[in-house]
Records
---
Amino acid sequence: MKHFVSIWLLAIILVQSTGNCWIIAAFYLNRNRIANTVCVNRFEQIPVCRGICYLQQKLEENEHQQDRTPELKHKEVLLFFEPITTAIISIPPEIKRSSGIYISPYFPTSHQPPVFKPPVC
């Protein structure tokens, strides 16, 4: 899930940062339609711009839209620390209880130093 969200956010950032490229690509894909229907100079005998006026207008709109980034206001927060004193209550030590594990009296748990000696060469 994290992988999908990170790829999705990366794609959104890439699309937003390459806005001019998308406008130019859309212009060149639809250049004939733009020159015939939207261009300011479409009624002239010899059209010179072929829709470039429309492209410039869209690029300027995109530039103004990017300039309108929201102004972030910094908010100052006062942090403080107040030590809290608590009464110290002595807790009696726990009574040693058996853990419920069976320990055989025939199985030694500690070694006897005089019995266990390394071999002498």
---
Amino acid sequence: MKYLDQEKRREFLSYLRKESIDLPDYEVIDVPKPKLYKEFFPWDKPPLTVFDGILLPIKTPDKIWITDTTFRDGQQAREPYTVKQIADLYTFLHDLGGPKGKILQSEFFLYSKKDREAVVACRSLGYQYPLIAGWMRPTFEDLRLVKESKVEECGMVTPVSDYHIFYKFPGLGRQKVISKYLEVAEETFKLGIVPRVHLEDCTRADTFGVVVPFIKKLMKLSRKYGLPAKVRVCDTLGIGLPWDAGALPRSVPKLIWVINNLCDVPSEQLEFHGHNDFHMGVANSVSAWLYGAALVNCTLLGIGERAGNVPLEAMVFMYATIKGDLDNMDTKVITKIAKYYEEEIGYSIPPYYPLVGENFNITWAGIHADGLLKNIEMYLPFDTEKLLDVPPGVAVSEYSGLAGVVFWINHYFRLTGENKITKSTPGVSEIHAEIKAMYDEGRLTRIGNDEMLTLVKKHMPWLLERFNNRVKLKTK
């Protein structure tokens, strides 16, 4: 762990007190060579965590939302969706978000004929939410496509780190690159379209030399044209940190706080977009909500570039942990979405994937199964059957024990009350003995449902006869 030196810490505090930062003409600071923050990002090591020790107050907006980029950032990292698949998934997003539109918006590519057909197909469904937004590069040619698509809001990618400014746009420098962004943003305002600037690679950018003056100028244009400007803080490489005591540019709370408080971007116009390269996407998104952003941007199942985006379904649950209520979001739709991805799209969800993976609420350990038999809440964080329509289960293996056998039978046959079996029920110990013998002889795989049913038929035929109508698979 590393701490920012006192001189740089004082420099940050001085920026917060500096009168010039409040002037409308606070300028982008051009530099002769790129500021790459090698003290944070040594190429031959993982990024270093640096703290400045400056704490910020939590400032969670009264209303927070989730936005979606499944059909833009999520789609560019996989085989393209068909128009029908996009319309179906958009419908799921609508159903999941509920009547209050907590899945507020979804953004779309507009380049190809298929992209534009998808927008038309989703628009024809007549849903108020998610709102349909476009996406473009900072060019007038792309803006023409946005105008033709008749969207009311459009995201515009605006790289702000010197990694991009110096190497993607060689020879221009910071001021010329930012001026180019502002020219396209102003033309967007003139068309009556709300621009949403995407601060690409913001967690490696010079916050006070580039980001703050850029956003202050953008907000000046917003006031001039009487339209809101939106700002998306992009942790493009997933290197952001969720701690307010972290140093800029990696601290997500500090980035959000600075843009919200020093650039006068209202919370409802401030959004965070994370990636999961270091498994920090959800934590960073939660911290963005806590420190002033009303919007967090996600994809279904976290599908996205490299290690993926922030999983939308995770943020639905995080919403409830912060607000204490789901606000009428229908979490059972999450299970339907997962089923659609596997059965209709052919996407394979990892078995240990949270909330929707095959094993997310399955226990393998006998000691855990024993705990579930005594109190179902012992090894589950919430009622998975009520919220996701997936009852808890147990996988029978070498380590399941008698408790695992009992839990599997009760779960599979949906036995409740007096019908539930126990460890002492005739046949249970015989089933467990056969399972143990299989592993003693060298078996490595889990016991499948069909095999368990065969064992039940052999050692507990009365149970199968009595509850045969509840059997979901054929017995041998």
